[in-house]
Batch of 4 targets.
Target 1
Amino acid sequence: MPKLPDSVLSCHDVNGKLLPDSVLRYAFDQLLTNNGYVHLVNVPESFDHVAFLKEMGEFQPTPTGAVVGDLKPEAGMEDVYHAQNHRSLLPHTEGYEYEGIPPQFLALWCVTPASGPGGETTLLDSRPLLSRLTEDEHHGFLTTPYRWKSTEGLARHGVENTATHPVLEEYAGHVILRYSHNNLIVPEGDEAAVQLLAFCGQLYEESHTAVSYAPRDMVVWNNWRMLHSRNAFEDPARHLKRVQIAAPIAG
Ligand SMILES: [Fe+2]
């Protein structure tokens, strides 16, 4: 059963007054650190999503170069695995198909919610999952290089990337998890990878959080810690904006 969202932050206090920017930022940072994500609700029309996110770091362009991108169903793309169609996605972290450090944070905010069923962004904290790995398994995922490929949908637009790196990477005092349920290439006979995919798939199914959108709602998560995905939907008008925030340069 999906969990109820447990990291929701309202832009208004109990009396309906807008929170001062400093209070909102304080509560946002605390929830993001504690839970790995924040779902911002009751967002006023005056809220500047881009300005709020800019304070978190440099924006990192997506594979097609968009800095502030649009997520809406694209014509002729329903038959492939692709972020910009109506179909569900599979659990992943962003940027696994690149050699460099993946974006540290991802943000989606809602221009037009999907009417009717579906369209939720789903999330799962990887910490309980990683804590169940044995020391040997953890070491194996830090040191065994795997091949990763970009999606079928991007390939249709001429974007085809592959990268080679382990599932886990230590970086600037953090452990980065890279994951893709369908684009991690499992070598023949690699039981550890087969079990990881089975375990993550099952845990995602049982324990993910589903975020539903009202207009202007925003969800921000730590992409080094959280897996994310999307439920299928029907409404062609569903429209989200997307920003990726790069890691600070390690000093
Ligand atoms: Fe994604």
Target 2
Amino acid sequence: MIDTNVNRQHGNNVKWSVIKDDDQLLPMTVADMGIATPQFIREAMQRVLDTKVLGYTMPSTGFYDAIIRWQKEHHDVTLKREQLILVPSVAVGLSFAIRHLTQVDDGIIVMSPYYPPYKQLVDDNHRQFVEFPLVQREGQYVIDFNRLDQLMTDSQAKAIIVCNPHNPGGCVWTTTELQRLEDIANAHHMLVLADEIHDDVAFSDNVPVSMMSDLMGEEAASQTILLKSATKAFNLAGVKCAYLAVKDPQMLTTLKQAAAAEAIEEVNTLGMVATQTAYEQGSEWLTEVNAYLEENRNLAYEYLREQVPMIRPMYPEGTYLIWLDFMAYGLSDAELDTKLRDLGHLCLNPGIDYGKTGKGFMRLNFAVDRSVLKDALHRLKHFDESVRQK
Ligand SMILES: Cc1ncc(COP(=O)(O)O)c(C=O)c1O
């Protein structure tokens, strides 16, 4: 059973650290959940603690088998153990792949708006950050493939990050879109860095397809590095365990060698236990959580459309993030953030942090108890009424 009765106002929690400035502030930001990490995972971790020793631990066969089975059964991705590389987090894995599969000054294409650390990872590894703006059609993001093709030619970029489902837009790219992406990337000999960390959060009207799935075919798989973990769907971001999947033999050899050189595969013992347990025992729990999140998604989307029409939500096809367009208020990004905090006592992620295309937007995380979500929505309505009165 899912448990949404959690208090996160302690323990150096990243999301809740903002309340030191205003204890009335409600943060709906960082992409983890206000839903308890499932009890069966915490119990499995407890059993490790009960052995009284936290020494060096090897990844077990059961751990690898759990990943392989999960990816096959849930995402139609066929993997072998030797195609997996363990990393502490998806961000670390992305940086690692960029460093070892591209050269200094190479361009990396990133669809904008984007998960903000992408920019830092690319910049700090001294690669060129090549921003590719998504365009809006009927309030949803779409990929302008002609422009992408042109950008690949002009920029001479070597890789593209494909975030599916997309953070912050909540888009689930269709199979047709993924196939076109793959065709264009292939024509330009471009490496695809497929960040699919959000793909276990899936709603009844949209099921994400993996770039490395059997459906997408061998060619797509061979030019793709898949980045994944159990952390988003099972609320395990603090346990530091993720993996890359690599099918192309040459890239695999390069990355395996680099992984040995950096000892990067020595991931957290409790993280491995948590991941294995999530994948072995978590299907039913996840179905329940996804149904709960889908109702939250519907509630947030419909409430805003009906009650606060000046805020235009993008419909989240996936993820537990809703991307909100506040442009109708005519506020600067700084004013918007300040007024949301001061008038609504609400803290959201400013869209401007997600690239130029995020100007005038805010991101709200709806993976919380429904009463907390309702509170946040009422705060948005209050913000709206207060701003319009002035
Ligand atoms: C799209 C995306 N990729 C990567 C990450 C970070 O994952 P990790 O904590 O494994 O580095 C996040 C976290 O919010 C994310 O939304």
Target 3
Amino acid sequence: MPPEMSSPPPGASQAEAPPRSPLPPSCDVLVVGAGPSGSACAQWLARAGVDVVLIDQHDFPRDKVCGDGLIPDSHAALQRLGVYAEVAAVAQRVSHVACIGPRGGRVDVPGSLSVLPRRQLDDILCRAAVNAGARRFTPVRFEAPLRDGGRVVGARVRQGGDAVHDIRSTWLVLATGAVPKALLAAGMCERQQPTGVALRGYVKNDAMAGRITAMEIVWHQRLRPGYGWIFPCRDGVFNIGVGLAHSHRKLRDGRRVMQDVNLREVFAAFCDAYAPARELMAGGTLQGELKGAPLRCSLEGARYSEPGLLVTGEAAGSTYAFTGEGIGKAMETGLLAAEALVAGRRQQSGDAAVQSAYDASLRALKPRFDLYERANRVNEHPWLADLLIWRARRNPAIVRRMSGVLDETRNPGSLVTLRGLTKLFLPVR
Ligand SMILES: Cc1cc2nc3c(=O)[nH]c(=O)nc-3n(C[C@H](O)[C@H](O)[C@H](O)COP(=O)(O)OP(=O)(O)OC[C@H]3O[C@@H](n4cnc5c(N)ncnc54)[C@H](O)[C@@H]3O)c2cc1C
């Protein structure tokens, strides 16, 4: 057996699949996708007394390719959802993000952070939705929306590999993540190609457990336009990976094509260029395989709503460009979808009012996403990271600014705009 197949990924269990329950013919809200966004949405709706059905194409617990890093916005959403203590009890608590530049300079930015494999995190979130009253059915795959006139009135789904069923619902919520298949089937996809791509693996290396204690993010010429990371999980396990921003180039005719980059080669370059990554891999055991996945960022690439249908989470592009963080914003946007639906029910408002409330709530977040898009230039020009780190090491106020970006009290764009860079050379209070 090759070493990468020698043990299951962290959090894996051998539980037998429960017998399948018959699917209901109807519900108030059908939420498709039980990731952070869908589970948050379903829990909030169920708490408000809405009859909600939550489906996912996979049985839970299931793996999700991710860096597993929880930053302050995730912690805030977990608090709102009442699962923060449960997550904190099993997550690896982390006190700093370490930003490491191409020349090896490093600055440790403090923050409220933790790392928990998505297999465990998503299971907690999904169970919380069920405990609040959502009816969960898995594995059930969304195939297409049902329409009556111009309005969406439910979905055609497939249970396991079996026959299709129709579930009628007053509203359908698509929280199907970065793979655009469901968006395409619903006619909501505006851009099929992802914004970025990333690859990660789990490696167990007990000897490194006390040595890598921060969430390390590494910029380097050989990782352009992207970065590498090492995030410590529990029990000597690390999530290690590489991400590539703007993985798909726009051609003159508007089409997008994948840049000529092989993520496995970028991963090898990361291990070659960054000594701790090299050491981690050389002395550790890979658990499971290296796996890649797309990212959809900057609240772009899909329509947010149409009558009877809301799109939320990464399906709506809710992941931050530059950092690739999206768990917190997936939950936030899921909650925004639920809030728009609950308010619409209370006020007995029509489709247009629900849509415009939801669309407006996402548009209100957009400027912040745009700043992350601008900050993406660090991934394209890693020397900017060198500059920032060099200055931050000499000026604690800059570290405080960076910490403010992490907990969202400051904008990331301000650090890498021309004005922001100029300010780096001015005395900072
Ligand atoms: C390699 C990598 C590293 C990352 N690292 C981080 C990180 O460290 N921190 C962070 O905050 N973010 C990170 N992200 C981003 C994060 O993974 C996403 O932002 C987040 O998962 C989005 O949540 P979601 O609920 O919208 O979608 P998902 O988590 O993708 O959930 C979507 C769900 O929908 C289900 N589904 C899809 N299609 C169908 C269908 N047709 N029928 C039924 N079910 C369906 C899927 O099975 C899945 O369970 C990373 C992403 C990648 C790829």
Target 4
Amino acid sequence: MRGVLLFIIGFTVSFLYAQTEQCGQVEYMDYLETLSPGIKEQADNMYFESLRQSQARNKWDAKDTLYTINVVFHVMYNIGEENLTDEVIKSQMDILNASYRRTNEDTVLTRDIFKPVAADVGIQFQLAKVDPNGDSTSGIVRKYTPRSSYVTSQRFATLQAEQVKTAANGSAAWDTEKYLNIWVCDLSYLGYDLLLGFAYPPTSAPNWPSTSYVNADRQGVVVHYKTVGENSFTTLTSNKTLVHEVGHYLGLRHIWGDAPANDRCNHNYDDFINDTPLAGSSSDAPGCNYNKNTCDPLEPDDLPDQIENYMDYSPGTCQNMFTSDQAGLMRQNLITYRPGIIALKTYEMGPEPMPYIPPTETRVYPNPASTFVVVEIKDPIKENRYKLKITNVLGQPVFEKELESESRQRIEYNFGLSGFYIYQIFENEDVMVEDRMLFGQF
Ligand SMILES: [Zn+2]
């Protein structure tokens, strides 16, 4: 009997989890593609360009600028519990800030293997003090809605939820080039917390022509009210949802690259970020599965799936880190595509530039690469000769270059390659390292 009961409980829980869509980012991008055909390709191109720039920048520049972003909350409520108090909103701001500055207490739970790459993003958030008319504000807009939920069917949930951004059915955005707009509303469906949130990714530079994909009124983040702040809702949601969605808003992707179930661990499905290990699937609730290691578990230097990452689907209790490269990418996107929302730049992150850190391994990055690569050699010896050689899958050489006996060098070259290749770094006649590498025109 007890066994049967446990089985029923277990089944109910997994059913609930299956119903919870968590983040609607994939569906949302599909929806935006129907509105603006080509937007996904453009988002891809911008992603790889930012990634390339941030990877080049992040290695050498002191991360000394602290950016403060102006935030406005639009709270749409139908019943009292949806009209979140100022205290709940402020507690969410605290969670957001702690997560992006890596000052949250649960950072002690980051496994030792990931501590070296766990990063203070150097971005923080403040409720706007001045509204678009120049009047003082609390940074929180509240509005009644006759809708009990913004989701009326299981399919196209994000399409329906977009209504929250309209003046007629929700609350119109404040100037999205000056504020991070966060809409909080009911995204449940038939009592299930179906959709927890979604975000508009950076897809356009400011001042682009009106024919571009700029859709000013939609820029921002939407979250389910039950995910917000320290509150009493006994649900399966997490108040790290907003941390995750703001990550999307600043251009991050899911760490498993949204790989389809039948094509896991394919290097084409990845976030292409070097310090988040390749993962074949999202880490779903319940619990923190520290044994999860979906790809290449037999490789000697393989790392487990980074379930601590905010851009996974693991429960909020497991999430406590962004990586250094994710931080670099968000900062790059912020200053390139969303510079107007920066309210303040300060230099609190320490006047000392980051110390020079010699490479801990011999490698070539970025991966994927297009028009340049950086070669890192661990402990190079001045008298030795070094060489980079790239061959195609048939073993035919397509690029070869003598290297300096230096630990880090950048090679500018329009490789004109596309697809998978093998690179080798030679020390004299010996192969120091050999690995696969993706090239493309990004
Ligand atoms: Zn997501």
